[in-house]
Sequence to fold (388 residues):
Amino acid sequence: MKSQILLVDDDQPVLDSLRRMLRSQRGIWSMTYVDSGEAAWQRMLAKEFDAVVCDIKMPGLNGLELLQRMARLERTANTPVVMLTGLADHTLKRRALDLGATDLLNKPVEPEDLLARLRNAVQIKSYQDELQAANDSLERKVQERTEELFHSRLDIIWRLAKVAEHREAETGNHVIRVGCNSRLIAEAMGRKRGFVETLFLAAPLHDIGKIGIPDSILLKRGALGPGQGAKLQEHCVIGARILREDSKVRTAFQEWRGADSRSVTRGFDNPFLETAASIALTHHEKWDGTGYPRRLAGEQIPAESRIVAIADMFDVLTSCRSNQEPYPQRKALEIIRDAVGSHFEPTVYEAFVAALPAIRAAQERFADSVEVVPRTEQYWETEYATSR
Fold:
């Protein structure tokens, strides 16, 4: 493709002279000639040029003002501009260079000088275009890789949440509803997008520590016996350890990667896991300090856990559990309201009430009877039968 050159001068004889000088280049350059700064600007808005030759002193939009406009528009900001000036215009020359002019030519213009400066300008634009294309390609690859890593993390999060679902089959879609309810409450509180998104993903892991509780306690129907309640409460600490502490697998991985590995020297910094661990540890703390496991009170309790506490309680009260029948929503709301100031933070409760219509919709959307994702048992049974 031919390089596109725009030449601007309000003096028609000068334009004619430029046209004659560049006649030999018509096979490799496509030249456009205009007689005003405004006409040049309209041409630049309509198409992209590889280089511009422009007079400084013009009526209306002069060369310096055209440079300023070009600098403000992303598409024209890096277009090389060769300015035409008089020999005595030292101040204008300096201003032109300060405003981004690539080069200067004195009038009257010598053909050899014009050709040399334009060749340089076109070459500069070519290098800029190649660099921009390489940067765009790299940025796309980085974005694609970032997206892959993001979805990989999401998949791991969802698999962890599914562990909790399988551990207590009777809880059905409880972990999904707690995540949704927590998100809705946080949004009603006006929390920032990043906080809401992290909370939405971390809240379903609040009870993951229950995988360390014996079946005789976790699946027991009716009231728990002596000492069993305290044992059940340990799920908070277990969950925090699962999500926060190093694992044997990580240790082995670090040994394999070597001591210079960034994973050894800096660790796997993961704000999401820290939030999930915080929720797992403290979602049973109470506003008045009578909760467990640390008896934290007030704002000692992390904000995310104060939200999950009420989201979790509402779903527990209104869902079918091994040791209780579900309460009607009206009764559940009374129980929660009576616990404001003791169990629940008043501000969080206000947001819960404001979000209640959306919470009810989420409760219905993810009711235990709803199959959120297709079940795989039939698939595996079919695969097993086929393999035989």
In short: Residues 263-267 have pLDDT under 50 and may be disordered. The two ends are 64 Å apart (CA to CA). The longest helix spans residues 111-167. Residues 3-136 form a domain with the Rossmann fold fold (CATH 3.40.50.2300).
